[in-house]
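Good day; I would like, with your permission, to put a structural problem before you. The record follows directly beneath this note:
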Amino acid sequence: MLETAWPADLSPIDEQQLRPLGTSLLRADATGVGRADWPEVFQGQHQAVAPAFAAARFRIQAVIARWDGAAGRAVVHLVWAGVDRGGTFTDGRITELQFIRSVTKGGARWSPKSWH
């Protein structure tokens, strides 16, 4: 349904790069797993911060990446499921994460645009 709602408009290479980035960032935020991989997002936060969702009961159901209205900006749309700390399971949760592309001598890199 995501593909139908938002037809592909990124190059396949950009989408291949953004999908795992969005998945990793959402997993880090929701479960705490992998926060060290995102120091620019989770500055000053330590693993002692209680995650909202159990890592073992978290899964991505669908993910796509699309342009976000301007060159060098993209949004990753994720549909996911998880069990929160209270034990409530929900699926079909929707999260959108925005990324910007910076170009350096080493090539292009996608980074989270803003956070919370």
